[in-house]
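Worked example 3 (structure in, sequence out).
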């Protein structure tokens, strides 16, 4: 298993030490000395006893957006793309013989962790904001995880989980802090390449809160280009909810007034990996835009009524951005329109509508 390396000071840590943050405060990545191979794309093999057959989700042509195809991530076992990373962390935890795992989440990552750690026979504690949809709470509880509702913001939930993670022997199954999770998510990017006849599209739209899916895409596409299996990186088009758009504000140089948003899965006010997200978007030749809730709700309705696809609000964010790009002005939107004109864009539909049937 490759060690972890601090992105700030370069110090390395053995994965078995259960370290999730460097003493210097830096974030951890998989050591730069490790390189994937054709036979080992992931830093640890997925355990046969833990996998639920995640991945290999359909890639289908949109009816209403001729330039786009949807990757149906809500076909995943727990109905979201977070299964890709959760199975890797559960496999790692089982290999290390840990007895307790903790995770903080806005819902989907907690559900995925609850399911896969149940498969691994490891006690799992899931912390979520008190405002999390009842449907997601029921799904987490159904898997037998210990469920704690934390008053306050998503950041308050992460802080509460970090206190538990500081206890000896506790495995912090963080989809933000543990880099093995993002390497699990990168299988999404590899599948796009394979389903696109061993080539990459011109652009991929990605909903961004903590940026797990975007960074997973960047890992996959970078590895494919480095291996000579693709000739260029797709543009990463990051989409945020206008009511919680810290990355779009930094990218564009102006503020978005904070407001509640229906896209609870990406309502992250201070993404820990913000610098990495911005660097990945920049390196890909992409951009970051924000979309308002009215457009998200309308997009979700159009997906259900015109495309036959019922998704949660967060999963409708990228569709709403693409569908309304022709009528939007301001930084970033001209690039979105330009790339949509290439007729070669992939949009993820990340979570099932039953996770949040209201709105």
């Amino acid at each position: 298993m490759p060690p972890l390396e601090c992105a700030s000071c370069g110090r390395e840590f053995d994965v078995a030490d259960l370290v999730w943050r460097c003493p210097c405060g830096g974030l951890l990545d998989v050591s730069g000395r490790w390189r994937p191979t054709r036979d080992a794309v992931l830093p640890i093999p997925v355990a046969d006893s833990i996998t639920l057959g995640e991945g290999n989700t359909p890639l289908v042509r949109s009816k209403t957006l001729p330039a786009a195809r949807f990757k149906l991530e809500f076909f995943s076992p727990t109905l979201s793309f977070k299964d890709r990373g959760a199975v890797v962390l559960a496999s790692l935890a089982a290999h290390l013989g840990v007895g307790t795992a903790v995770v903080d989440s806005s819902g989907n990552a907690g559900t995925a962790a609850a399911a896969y750690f149940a498969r691994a026979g490891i006690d799992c504690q899931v912390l979520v904001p008190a405002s999390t949809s009842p449907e997601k709470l029921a799904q987490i509880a159904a898997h037998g995880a210990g469920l704690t509702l934390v008053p306050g913001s998503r950041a308050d939930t992460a802080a509460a989980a970090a206190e538990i993670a500081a206890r000896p022997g506790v495995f912090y199954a963080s989809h933000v802090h543990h880099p093995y999770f993002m390497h699990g998510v990168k299988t999404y990017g590899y599948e796009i390449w394979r389903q696109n006849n061993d080539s990459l599209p011109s652009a991929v739209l990605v909903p961004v809160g903590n940026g797990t899916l975007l960074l997973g895409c960047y890992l996959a596409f970078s590895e494919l280009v480095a291996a000579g299996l693709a000739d260029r990186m797709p543009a990463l088009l990051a989409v945020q909810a206008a009511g919680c758009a810290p990355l779009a504000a930094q990218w564009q140089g102006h503020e978005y007034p904070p407001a509640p948003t229906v896209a609870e899965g990406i309502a992250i006010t201070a993404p820990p990996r913000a610098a990495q997200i911005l660097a990945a978007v920049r390196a890909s030749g992409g951009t970051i835009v924000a979309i308002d809730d009215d457009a998200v709700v309308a997009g979700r309705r159009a997906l259900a009524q015109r495309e036959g696809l019922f998704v949660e609000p967060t999963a409708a964010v990228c569709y709403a951005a693409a569908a309304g790009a022709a009528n939007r002005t301001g930084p970033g939107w001209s690039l979105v329109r330009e790339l949509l004109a290439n007729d070669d864009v992939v949009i993820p539909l990340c979570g099932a509508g039953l996770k949040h049937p209201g709105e």
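Notes: The chain has a mean pLDDT of 96. The two ends are 44 Å apart (CA to CA).
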